[in-house]
Design a protein that fits this description.
The structure is a single chain. By secondary structure, this protein is mainly α. It is 52% helix and 0% strand. It has seven helices and no strands. Helix 2 runs parallel beside helix 3 and helix 6 runs antiparallel to helix 7. The chain is globular and about 55 Å long. The model has no long low-confidence stretch (mean pLDDT 88). InterPro entries: BrxD (IPR021228). It comes from Delftia lacustris. This is ATP-binding protein.
């Protein structure tokens, strides 16, 4: 038997469907016929949570359910306490370009960074704050200075473009 649906979830799904948009939460309540695809992507998410990586491209005709499917996968990833970044590709946000479109895509991904506590985006500040707080706790427990431990953890970023500046700001 299925568990009862919380009124908040029910209302969110119904309002989204009435507005003609994909529900941001509660997709599992109305999802049918995608068991195999969901199982495959849940396995990908489990591997990612274990430190591996995965890449999938979802393609389909307009109205085929791509956005719905990706939001469902996103919800599963958030439930597993992973950080999720989302962005829609368009002519102004592309992976490869010379007119700033790739930077625009990256900016959109960072704006839309989500966690369980910030599922609608804007989670970057919280992620950085948690990283710093955790490092402070570890530094105190090990007798190291917080700045030294932060710099040690951020060292691998310094070789990336603008990585040194980013690491310097975080460690400050």
């Amino acid at each position: 038997m299925n568990a009862p649906i919380r009124p908040r979830d029910r209302d969110a799904v119904i309002q989204s469907l009435r507005a003609g948009v994909v529900p941001r939460s509660g997709q599992h309540l109305i999802q049918v016929g995608r068991a195999r695809e969901i199982e495959t992507l849940v396995a990908d998410i489990a591997r990612i949570a274990d430190g591996s990586s995965a890449f999938r491209v979802v393609i389909g005709e307009y109205g085929a359910g791509k956005t719905f499917f990706l939001n469902l996968v996103r919800a599963v990833a958030l439930e597993k306490k992973l950080v999720v970044a989302t962005a829609d590709l368009n002519p102004d946000r592309r992976l490869h370009a010379s007119g700033g479109q790739a930077r625009s895509l990256y900016a959109e991904l960072m704006r839309n960074l989500s966690t369980r506590t910030k599922p609608d985006g804007g989670a970057l500040a919280g992620i950085v704050e948690k990283f710093i707080a955790t490092t402070k706790t570890e530094a105190k427990a090990s007798g190291q200075s917080t700045e030294a431990l932060l710099r040690q953890k951020l060292d691998q970023l310094t070789e990336l473009v603008n990585g040194y500046d980013f690491a310097d700001v975080i460690a400050a």
